[in-house]
Amino acid sequence: MTKNVRVRFAPSPTGPLHIGGVRTALFNYLFAKKHNGTFVLRIEDTDQNRYVEGAEEYIINALNWCNIPYDEGPGKNEKFGPYRQSERKDLYKAYAEELIATNNAYYAFDTAEALDLHRKEHEQNGKTFIYNWHNRLKLTNSLSLTPEEVQEKLAAGEDYVIRFKSPQDETLHLKDMVRGHIKIDTNILDDKVLFKSDGMPTYHLANIVDDHLMEISHVIRGEEWLPSLALHYQLYQAFGWEAPEFAHLPLILKPTGKGKLSKRDGDKLGFPVFPLEWIDPKTNDVSRGYKEDGYFADAVINFLAFLGWNPGTEQELFSVDELVDAFDIARVNKAGARFDPDKIKWFNHHYMQEQNNDELAETFKAQQKELNDIDVNYVAMVVNLIKERATFVSDLWDLSHFFFEAPKTYDEKAYKKAIKDDTKALLEELTTVINTVEDVTTETLQNAIKGWITAKEIGFGKVMMPLRLALVGALQGPDVFDIMFMIGKQESIKRIENLAATI
């Protein structure tokens, strides 16, 4: 790729960043890094009515947690700043007026009431109202009014918007990096508003101007923006600017595969749709986040990378650096990608095994009050034994509580299965065998107990099942001899005696 690659992620600060937005940011990041380019964050806050306090900070924190930080943006390497559109609003009007001067846009003075009346008239006739070439001369705008009338309205301070003048009877041939060749009949396009009566640009004008001024080379965004592609191409043509290359990513679908994934789906099926927890500043409602639910950022990113893209190999587990090396925009799919909550758990389980035991122990200890007085090194040793069965740090206590406290009860089904007529006598003899072990290790305990079982010609299950039940309280957990070594010889004997006393 010869051109200097600059891509941008341009969210609106209207609430928490949806997981679909994270996927868009990720694909932009991967594309930029693959081509030694720049990943830009721009905050598109032209709609001040929908602005939500704390949303911009949330977006930045989410990108950082996901390990896809921006190279350039608010407060960071501001070569093309400012990066908030609300702080750039003074420059957009000049560009809108430039389009008027070149006959590519016009002032429209229609009131909301007048437009609503036209809309209802069309509906009564079974038609859809579209403000464009077929009716613009019948409406109140600078194309239908005389220049003097236009100046009078402007001088009087009448409200107006600036609309793009969509061409008639033309065919646009557009190219999309994901979808290929796209053909558009301009007769079906409406004259979109570019500049609003409140003095702010619409998304359509602002993003084109900013992409040009920030030298964006590739626009990689969600499929929902595909209907705007024709207008955006025409705006580049109208300004006489070179358009960036476009790629529209497939939708992320509900787990059923039908319809776009929403927060409601997550609430209903019990999984987050946001990277971080979000507390609504108006209602104080809390929305779950992947971080707070115990997911590792690497697992979330690895999972999201496969929503709409595949490497063309059997490999599924990728670090971020490996994703950068493997990423190819040509392998992004057109079809929507189904969100699978079980698959992201599968990824998290894998990344659990990759975690450093000492770091996991610190996190585990901080979450579990029962571990307050336990040496973190001992906790790390326990974690090493049981993490292969865990998906989340929150799973660790249920998998390991018997390393820290003796069973208070015994699983009923396990008790019936393990306890036989001769079990009590065998357990009493077993404590004697354990007492003979002087240099206690996993191996010495195993050799002594297995040697005794073999010499006595006892079935292994007759001893090992009640032994596990005594230590754990159930017929589960890691290797019995690892447990005995960890809790110590005397604690092991005490637990065996506790079980024998119930028989």
Automatic annotation (TrEMBL):
It is found in: Cytoplasm. Residues 4-346 form the Glutamyl/glutaminyl-tRNA synthetase class Ib catalytic domain. One of its GO terms (molecular function) is ATP binding. Keywords: Aminoacyl-tRNA synthetase, ATP-binding, Cytoplasm, Ligase, Nucleotide-binding, Protein biosynthesis. Residues 368-498 form the Aminoacyl-tRNA synthetase class I anticodon-binding domain. A motif ('KMSKS' region) lies at residues 260-264. It is an enzyme of class 6 (ligase). Its main location: cytoplasm. It holds the Pfam family Anticodon_2. GO terms for biological process: glutamyl-tRNA aminoacylation. Its EC number is 6.1.1.17. A motif ('HIGH' region) lies at residues 11-21. It catalyses: tRNA(Glu) + L-glutamate + ATP = L-glutamyl-tRNA(Glu) + AMP + diphosphate. Catalyzes the attachment of glutamate to tRNA(Glu) in a two-step reaction: glutamate is first activated by ATP to form Glu-AMP and then transferred to the acceptor end of tRNA(Glu). NCBIfam families: gltX_bact. Belongs to the class-I aminoacyl-tRNA synthetase family. Glutamate--tRNA ligase type 1 subfamily. Monomer. This is Glutamate--tRNA ligase. It comes from Formosa sediminum. The lineage of its organism: Bacteria, Pseudomonadati, Bacteroidota, Flavobacteriia, Flavobacteriales. The gene is gltX.
